[in-house]
Specification:
The chain has 181 residues and is α+β, with helices and mostly antiparallel strands. Helices cover 33% and strands 33% of the residues. Helix 1 runs antiparallel to helix 2. The longest helix has 20 residues. One of its GO terms (cellular component) is ribosome. Pfam families: Acetyltransf_1 (PF00583). It comes from Roseibium denhamense.
């Protein structure tokens, strides 16, 4: 039996240390650009240079060092197939709350349950951080908008013309929350 007859191993989801995240910056930049080029509303407008994508992820790595944010990735072989961040509310009165941010799954790895795995992992991480109220936003009409309710999120509302999408058009955003108690 040859290696080609075996199916690929399922993606592995794990928490990155700040050092691991810095090492992953090139792969995270490739993931960001691939998702943006596929139309994802993730805070950037095309074109996005590799240098700018890497600078973005290096800034996120600095947040990991402070302990206010956490990054989880899904690897498929050597590739980063997906990422999600948990950003703890820094306010004294928000010690129960966190934002779920930058959920991305590479277009080549979509429709395989990877986003759900990342969302379940971020729930577990939030619980470990004693955060039970999670908040996120997504582009209204984006495929992710239909994902979040299936992961237990409740729609709080829609803000029209919230941000420019990847191709320069104004998009609405939908706000979701989840109570983990």
């Amino acid at each position: 039996m040859t290696a080609e007859t075996f199916p690929p191993a399922p993606p592995v989801v794990y928490l990155l240390s700040d050092r691991q995240a810095y090492s992953a910056v090139p792969g995270l930049a490739r993931l960001l650009i691939a998702c943006l080029e596929d139309g994802a509303g993730i805070g950037f407008v095309l074109p996005l240079s590799v240098e700018d994508a890497e600078a973005f992820w290096r800034a996120k790595c600095e947040e990991l060092t402070s302990g206010q944010s956490f990054m989880m990735v899904a690897r498929q072989g050597a590739d980063i197939a997906g990422v999600v961040m948990l950003c703890l509310a820094p306010q004294q009165n928000g010690s129960h709350r966190a934002d779920v941010a930058k959920l991305m799954v590479h277009p080549d790895h979509r429709r395989k349950g990877l986003a759900r795995k990342l969302m379940a992992a971020v729930d577990d991480l939030a619980r470990a951080q004693t955060r039970w109220l999670l908040v996120l936003d997504t582009v209204t009409g984006d495929s992710a908008e239909s994902l979040y309710p299936t992961c237990g999120y409740q729609k709080a509302g829609i803000i029209p013309d919230y941000a420019y999408g990847s191709h320069g058009q104004l998009d609405a955003t939908t706000i979701f929350y989840k109570d983990l108690r």
